[in-house]
Each structure stands twice: as structure tokens, then as C-alpha cells.
Automatic annotation (TrEMBL):
UniProt-recorded name of the protein: Nucleoside/nucleotide kinase family protein
Record has Nucleus as a keyword: no
Any matching Pfam family: PRK
Organism from which the protein derives: Varibaculum cambriense
Domain Phosphoribulokinase/uridine kinase: from-to ranges: 28-213
Alphabetic keyword roster: Kinase, Transferase
UniProt-listed InterPro entries: P-loop_NTPase, PRK/URK
Gene3D superfamilies registered for this protein in UniProt: P-loop containing nucleotide triphosphate hydrolases (3.40.50.300)
GO molecular function (one): kinase activity
């Protein structure tokens, strides 16, 4: 069956469409997509809209929080491939997703990733017991090997943010420069690391429940 394609002209329409698909109780929504597609921005704005406007208690869970530390990557000789599928603790991510499927009477703290420190930060995000929707995002949520194939089993909805690939390279270069690299090193990193990872991710898009295309600039969209 061909994958569904949804196009949205504003954040409100996207949020309300999502609400129509939520199951009773707690739902975990996955947002996959290529590096630089805008997943983290969209996920955080979606969580804010659901919580503040629609009064649906929601939380954000970034897959990037499950990066191996630089020390572990160095030990495994993977530091120069940071961001590739094997540089994440996929089992740790799966364990947290499983834990979040169970509604408990205490908060669950999950890691985030610091683009300033270039390291995961443990227990940086609190997911409260009354959370109704958890939006998790990451490159490999729709991947079908390396342990990632079990992620979809933990999700109620899996969307793929289908962004114009011509926009991605400049975004990624800017991200690397904002993280402290010179333009020359940023371009080198994007060409040698981010671009191969993008190719891996794009091959997984048909594993998602639907492709999401935004007809607005999520970086400035507020409603």
C-alpha cells in the first residue's frame, strides 16, 4: 500500500490532525527524518502547542539523548562517525520507550543532547505521570536493522518529516559551525558524515505511517 502523504499549512492543522489519530490513554508519536530536516524544532513546537493550546499534557523525547558519550565513541573508534546508527545506544532508547508505555505514578527522567557540549546529558527532561502524548524524534526511528527495527513496535504513530533535500546541506553546515567548527571543517563533516547518514535515513521513509510535508517555515511558525 502506498504511504500516505500529509501536507500542512500551519502548526495548528498538524496538531489537530494528530489529535484525531491519538488512542485513549497515553500515546507515543515518532517523528523520523533526515539530519537537518527540522525534526527537533517541529517536535518541541508540537509539544508546546498540544500542552499550552489544546490542554493535552505532552512531553518531548529526543533520540539524540541516546548518543554514546564521546569517551565511548573514542573507545569504539566511532568518534569520526558520530550520528551514524551504530553511535547510539539503541537498546537504552528501546528500554525507555518500553518504560514510557507503562503509566506510573512517578516522573520518568530521560536524557537530552547538548550541541554546545557535544555530549548527551542524563536525566535532563522530566516526563510527568499525567503525560498524555510523548513526541519522540530522531533519524532512525523508521530504520529496519541494527536494533532500530524494534522502535516502531513501541510507537502508536510514526511520521516521517519529508523535507526538501536541497535545503539540508546548508542547514547542516550552519549547525556544525554553530557547534564550534570552522566553515571548512563543517563542510567536511557534512560531506563525510551527515550526507551518508542522510542517505541511510531517506531509504527508510516508506516504513513510516505517513510522510509529513510542511508548507510553512517551522522556525518562525507560532500558531
Amino acid at each position: 500500500m502506498p504511504v500516505k502523504i500529509y501536507e500542512f499549512g500551519c502548526l495548528e492543522y498538524l496538531a489537530r490532525d494528530l489529535c484525531r489519530q491519538l488512542r485513549p490513554g497515553r500515546s507515543i508519536v515518532g517523528l523520523a527524518g533526515a539530519p537537518g530536516a527540522g525534526k527537533s524544532t517541529l517536535a518541541q513546537k508540537l509539544v508546546a502547542y498540544l500542552t499550552d493550546v489544546l490542554d493535552i499534557h505532552s512531553a518531548y523525547l529526543p533520540m539524540d539523548g541516546f548518543h554514546f558519550s564521546n569517551a565511548v565513541l573514542r573507545q569504539r573508534q566511532l568518534l569520526d562517525r558520530k550520528g551514524a546508527p551504530e553511535t547510539f545506544d539503541v537498546n537504552g532508547y528501546l528500554n525507555v520507550l518500553q518504560r514510557l508505555r507503562e503509566i506510573v505514578d512517578y516522573p520518568v527522567f530521560v536524557p537530552n543532547y547538548s550541541r554546545t557540549l557535544h555530549e548527551p546529558i542524563a536525566a535532563a527532561i522530566e516526563i510527568k505521570p499525567d503525560t498524555q502524548v510523548i513526541v519522540t524524534e530522531g533519524n532512525y526511528l523508521a530504520a529496519n536493522n541494527g536494533g532500530w527495527e524494534h522502535v516502531k513496535e513501541m510507537l502508536d504513530i510514526l511520521w516521517y518529516l519529508d523535507t526538501d533535500t536541497s535545503l539540508l546541506k546548508d542547514r547542516l553546515i550552519e549547525r556544525q559551525m554553530a557547534g564550534g567548527r570552522s566553515r571548512k571543517l563543517a563542510v567536511k563533516w557534512v560531506e563525510e558524515v551527515d550526507s551518508p547518514n542522510k542517505d541511510i535515513v531517506e531509504k527508510t521513509k516508506l516504513e513510516a505511517d505517513a510522510l509529513i510535508r510542511l508548507l510553512f517555515d517551522i522556525s518562525v511558525e507560532n500558531s
